[in-house]
Amino acid sequence: MGFTIPRVDTLLAPYAEKSYQKYVDEYLSICDNGDKNKADEYATKKVYRDFEQGFQSWEMAFNSVGSSRGDYPFIAISFGIGTSKWETMASEVALKTRMGGQGKEGFKRPVLFPKLTFLYDGNLHGKGEKLEWLFDVAIDCSSKAMYPDFLSLTGDGYIPEMYKKYGKVVSLMG
């Protein structure tokens, strides 16, 4: 049993924007200087930390709650083609959280769930493209934690065809 959360980066982005606005307001209510740049820096760091804590809690929950049969829920998330500030931040933090592993300091290990699927689009992630840096983070994560899996949206086959034709991603579970 399990489920897939497709395009988790685009799913979480509107909530990150709301949190960002809340943190900007919080900063401006505390600091009398009204410095918008410092408010932006403060709020962006807080949203980044929210993402970190959220992905860490997902990993802890999904890898520590087994069923009576001794198995774990199979949960998968896909991400990588969102281009906004919050979408790319969500993708980056998901990858960096996986690379960091779970457990006590000095004994951290990568976990299995949620299964990470990086959506690769050569027009976004290819050499010299806007999100090449994010693809590099995904490759680094893969070298350290065996995930993410990569799903090409620019190759041949059913999934790239659907993406090219409709602009929609078919996110796989396994």
Automatic annotation (TrEMBL):
GO MF term set: ribonucleoside-triphosphate reductase (thioredoxin) activity
Concerning InterPro entries, the annotation shows:
NrdD
Instruction: Give the GO biological process terms.
Output: DNA replication
List the protein's name.
Anaerobic ribonucleoside-triphosphate reductase
